[in-house]
Specification:
The protein has one domain. It is mainly alpha-helical. One of its GO terms (cellular component) is cytosol. This is OmpH family outer membrane protein.
Amino acid sequence: MNKAIKIILLLSITLISNQLLAQKFGYIDSEYVLNKHPDYKVVQQELEKLSNAWKKEAQDLDAEIKEMYIQLKAEEVLLTEEMYQKRMQEIQKKEKTSQEFNSRIFGINGQYFQKQAELLQPLQSKIYDAIERVSRKNNLAMLFDKASVPSGIIYTDPRHDYSEFVLEELGIEDNN
C-alpha cells in the first residue's frame, strides 16, 4: 500500500512537472495587424505625398536634361567644337545632379527610407508592446511573425493565430 501511494505521488509529480515544462507557441501576421491599424493608413498617405513630390522633382530634372539634349541636337551644326563640348559638360553635370538626387532621396539609406522608418517607428513600438502583452497574457514561450521574410513557417493552424488578440489589445475592431 505504501508503494502504491509513492507511485501515485511520483506519477502525479511527473504529470504536473510536464505541464509546467510545456511551452506554448503562436504566431501573428504583422502585415495584417499593420494594415488594420488606422495610424498606418495615415503614415502611408504621408509617405505617398512625399514620394510623389520627390518623384515629380526627379521627373522635372529628367525633362530638363532631355530638353537640353534636344536643344543641343538642334543647334549642333551651328556650334563650334568647343561650344559643343561645353554644352555636353553642362548636360553631364545635370545628369550627375539627377543621379545624386535620386540616390539621396530613394537610395538604400535615402531620405524616403529614413522618413518611412521615422514615421513607422512609433506605430511599430505600439504593436510590439501589444504583442508582448498578448504573449504574457497567453503564457506564450514564442510568438512567430508569419509575415516576416523568411519566416520559415510552412503551415499554420488558425487556432494558434494571435493577430486578432493583438488588434484587440491595440483597441482596433475588425471591420471587414
